[in-house]
Amino acid sequence: MVTQLKRGGTRLTTIPQHVIWMECGCGRNAPVRVSHLLACDNPPETVTDVVERVRCSGCGVRGAKDFRIVYNPEGGAAFNAMRGSEQRQD
Predict the structure, then answer these.
(1) Which residue has the higher pLDDT, 77 or 18?
(2) Is residue 90 part of a domain?
(3) In total, how many domains does the chain have?
């Protein structure tokens, strides 16, 4: 019997130097640094907790359509590269 892992069940304490890139159904995307989440008074436990709680700053919908976990220490070049892929509204 194969046990299937739940996507997003990763504990945030195991990925403190990562960024969670979330995409809304409206097409907007944004990064959230795990280290910033862990610094909160009552931090979420898992990636799923974060993905379910976020609210899009554009359309106001709660929850992300898709997400990516990206390794990226503070000030890392990968973070800046991903920011360049954000959709901008002029």
Answers:
(1) 18
(2) no
(3) 1
With b meaning 16 or more CB within 10 Å and e meaning fewer, what string describes 4-31?
eeeebebebeebeebbbbbbbeeebbbb
Tens of pLDDT, residue by residue over 58-86, are 999 999 999 999 988 766 665 566 666 55
Q: Is 40 among the domain residues?
A: yes
Show the CA angle centred on residue 54, arms to residues 52 and 60, nearest 5°.
115
Host domain of residue 32: 12-83
Nearest to 57 by CA among 36, 29, 33: 29
Would 74 be classed as within a structural domain? Answer: yes
Task: Give the residue among 6, 16, 4 at the shortest CA–CA distance from 74.
Answer: 16
